[in-house]
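G., the chain you wanted modeled:
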Amino acid sequence: MSAERFGGLRARIAAEAARLMIEEGVDQYFTAKRMAAKRLLGRVEGRRARFRPADLPSNGEIREALLLLAERSEGSGRTRRLFALRIVALEAMRALAPFSPRLIGSVSTGHIRRGSDIDLHVFPADEDALERHVRALGWTFDRERVTIQKGGEIREYVHYHVADVAPLELTVYAPRELRSRPRSSTDGKPIVRLGVAALSALCARDHPAAWERYLETGEVEGMDALLEMDEDAPLPGPFDGLLEDGAEGDDEPAHAEPGEEDDPDQVYDPLPGFEGVA
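Predicted structure as tokens:
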């Protein structure tokens, strides 16, 4: 039995979860959907409403709600800004060519929102060589080591947060991992990694007029004005990248709550009216 039969409850929970993540900084789908359910359901006969994961929207449904909120708030300028971000990504990838950069996430899929950064995977044989290269480019960056739980194992990833025209995040992988593709936490499918040629083709397909102008002049009309839109956005935080198509950051931190793919044998409180539903 679907919660959709009860006044679109599932969709309303997804919308409220998206609002919590954007406006209140809730940083996990797991937490946001449960907070949203409790806020919408309130109490039934003096008791807090009960729910179980099967009654709640998926990560993908929440991501779609996040995208809708972004479209409503930014309008047509969002498409122009997407092209500007893709050009910044393209030029950064060309600069990082020795390390086989690949674009992932919201700039790749088009699911950007205000404050979205550019996410690149890089595959250096020697991380020190990567760091020297980034320094030689004159980029300002912070290095961060993140521990997450992935596939039941604790893994560490190194991230470089680069302050460029738009913020870049470089995630370091071993060269052998270039042939493997992590799965998205939103739909379970392998994520798409775009190389320079694929990103160029995407720009030509999605932004033909702007792409032709860029090829002719090397410029993006209004680049500075478009990217200044992000100056009033919240500082980068744990909820950045929520519209991405999945990455290692979609796994749960080692000491955080588990994600929506919880233990099927774990006992959860069902939504009112669902107590007897299998």
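The chain has two domains: 3-58, 75-250.

Shout if anything looks off.
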